Amino acid sequence: MALQWEQVLVHSTDPMSLGQWWADALGWVVVHSSPDEFEIRPEPDRMPGLDFVRLDEAKKSKSRLHLDFRPDDQDAEVARLVAHGARRVDIGQGDRPWVVLADPEGNEFCVLSQGTA
C-alpha cells in the first residue's frame, strides 16, 4: 500500500482570511477558494498543502498539532512573521532554541533555529 500526504487541514472560523494570511506568510499559491474552504500549496501541483476549513467554533486550548519551520535566519523570520500579524506565545516551552508563534486565529507554530534537531 502506498500513501501520499496531500494536505494538513486547519479548522478556522474564517478560512479565506486565515488561508490568505498563511499564503502570504509562506509565499504559497491558492489552489481552491470558497467561503468554507481555502487551500494553499507551495506550487499548484506540489503537495502537501494546507487546507483551511470552516469550523464555527473558536480555538479553546493549546493545539495538539502544529507546524515547525526552519528558516535561514531565525531572528529575521520571527520579526517578519510578527510584522505580518503573528504573535509570540508561551505554551510552556521554557528556554528553548525555537520561538513559538501563533497565527491570527491562535494556531501555534514554531520557528526553529539552524541548530535545532
Automatic annotation (TrEMBL):
Q: Which residues form the VOC domain?
A: 4-114
* A Pfam family assignment: Glyoxalase_6
Among InterPro entries, the record links this protein to: Glyas_Bleomycin-R_OHBP_Dase, Glyoxalase_6, VOC_core
Gene3D superfamilies according to UniProt: 2,3-Dihydroxybiphenyl 1,2-Dioxygenase, domain 1 (3.10.180.10)
Tell me where on the tree of life, at the top rank, the source sits.
Bacteria
What is the name of the protein in this document?
VOC family protein
